[in-house]
Amino acid sequence: xxxxxxxxxxxxxxxxxxxxxxxxxxxxxxxxxxxxxxxxxxxxxxxxxxxxxxxxxxxxxxxxxxxxxxxxxxxxxxxxxxxxxxxxxxxxxxxxxxxxxxxxxxxxxxxxxxxxxxxxxxxxxxxxxxxxxxxxxxxxxxxxxxxxxxxxxxxxxxxxxxxxxxxxxxxxxxxxxxxxxxxxxxxxxxxxxxxxxxxxxxxxxxxxxxxxxxxxxx
Length: 218
Known about the structure:
Elements: H1 6-12, E1 19-21, H2 29-39, H3 54-60, E2 71-78, E3 81-91, E4 96-104, H4 113-128, E5 132-138, H5 143-150, E6 154-168, E7 171-183, H6 200-210
Parallel strand pairs: 4-5
Antiparallel strand pairs: 1-2, 2-3, 3-4, 5-7, 6-7
């Protein structure tokens, strides 16, 4: 599960004309943090607040040409100007990739960039040998949910209180989040659960979640 180089990222996920993935350099960290604060101030608390700290990048994020870490950050520019950032975390032992953040400058939202990149995540994951992609989506606005669903991710349920969000200035609450995933291996590679090994509640939820995919049912 080796991270692709910046040139490989560009080849794997072609972006619309004018947009380009950039190589993350240590000298870019301060500018990246300042823009993330501007584009998405709600990130100041919770599991992704590390993207606002320099030490997070230095200790946990991979830089090309250096020893790899489990988090990849992909800055994106338009006409040479920073307009977005995309970040994943790999889970090597389970061959999984967690889509941590996808943040775009307000002027570049609504242009289907998020859809293009989310679909491209499958190509990127397959190139690395990943078997499973997953992401969490806020329930305060529907945009991330719609983008993941349009990209073919399956809604698996909800995490109650897993993360924190600033719901108004100075007011922080633990929140519900939607859990989405996409499987990258064929059905024959899956061991499906047997109903006899599931409680009635577990079986009912399984049937509800996978009733539209007969090939995925036990």
